[in-house]
Amino acid sequence: MDNEKFQDLMLEHFGKVLNKLDGVESRIGSVESRIGGVESRIGSVESCLGSIESRLGNVESELLEVKQSQLSMEIKFGEKLDALYFDWRDTQKQLNEEMKTEIKNLGTKVEALQIESTRYDQEIKDLTEAKFYLVKAPKE
Question: What is the pTM of this model?
């Protein structure tokens, strides 16, 4: 093979290699472009995740407030229920004591009336006997 043919062959091969390198370069540019798109999408996803984390933080904060409010309401309700119950018990005890006192007073009054009734019964009996003696007394 002579020198000229060799140079032509080498030029042809270099041309093919350069064409292939251009194709590879083009493909690398396409891959880089795609990687840029993926990076952009990842940035968008990260932004969305940040927004979601922020919202989740707000929800957690509001849930904590609701729990604290519920606990506060339960405590206040318990205190009010206790106050009502103990007030009712005190009122019931006071009413029971008043009723016991009234029953004792009524018992005392009944006893006094029984004594008085017994005395009146005795007076009636005595008067009846006195009348009987007066009616049956010998006439003169």
Answer: 0.45
